[in-house]
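Incident log, support desk, overnight shift.

02:14 A customer reports that sequence design results differ from what the structure should imply. Their input is reproduced verbatim below. On-call engineer (initials T.W.) acknowledged and began investigating.
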């Protein structure tokens, strides 16, 4: 597994790569990709894509997902995002766009590639960065959660005036490692069809994020 990060992130969390749990994680994931008995998503070179596109210095928003889409061609290394070529959006992503559309009164996006958000300082981070094809949550408890928790904690400690968007029970649990006095933390049910109508729709997280930045004189996100 390629465990290198851009320099802006490396100086912040590079120490994690030298810890025993990550060395074991690296070995495990490398074997998964090399085995060729099953497909692993995203492609190996995209595992750390979220960090590649959103520098630590530029970071403004963190959106937490669970793990990559387990469907061929969907996962592109950013939580909730899909490649430009994907014509049928995953239902959770479609619901996110429906909320953006209603909240901000803008047109429904033309594609599901969220690189346009990442390029503005939105870190689209999954708690688990790899998955087996057709088997959601299959790489749970192999070490990814410890790594991404360390990332979240570092971000919370070393940055200020960020917005964390936590959707669903598992993401909301991360609130314990975020300093809510320094950052705006917004929570809502997960945007999946099973829970979107329980409070994700109408949460207005996108307008609230921009209102927060507006008050601070920070450039808003073009959602």
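02:41 Re-run completed on a clean worker. Output:
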């Amino acid at each position: 597994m390629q465990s290198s990060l851009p320099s802006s992130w490396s100086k912040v969390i590079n120490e994690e790569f030298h810890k025993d749990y990550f060395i074991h994680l690296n070995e495990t994931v490398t074997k998964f990709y090399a085995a060729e008995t099953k497909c692993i998503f995203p492609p190996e070179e995209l595992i750390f894509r979220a960090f590649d596109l959103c520098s630590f210095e530029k970071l403004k928003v963190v959106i937490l997902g669970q793990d990559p889409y387990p469907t061929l061609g969907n996962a592109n290394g950013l939580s909730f995002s899909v490649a430009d070529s994907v014509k049928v959006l995953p239902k959770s992503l479609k619901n996110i766009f429906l909320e953006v559309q209603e909240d901000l009164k803008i047109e429904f996006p033309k594609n599901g590639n969220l690189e346009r958000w990442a390029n503005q300082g939105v870190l689209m981070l999954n708690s688990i960065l790899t998955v087996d094809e057709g088997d959601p949550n299959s790489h749970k408890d192999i070490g990814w959660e410890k790594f991404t928790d360390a990332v979240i904690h570092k971000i919370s400690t070393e940055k200020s005036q960020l917005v964390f968007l936590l959707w669903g029970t598992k993401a909301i649990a991360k609130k314990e490692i975020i300093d809510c006095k320094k950052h705006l933390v917004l929570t809502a049910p997960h945007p999946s069809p099973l829970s979107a109508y329980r409070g994700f729709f109408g949460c207005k997280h996108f307008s609230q994020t921009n209102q927060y930045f507006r008050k601070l004189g920070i450039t808003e996100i073009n959602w």
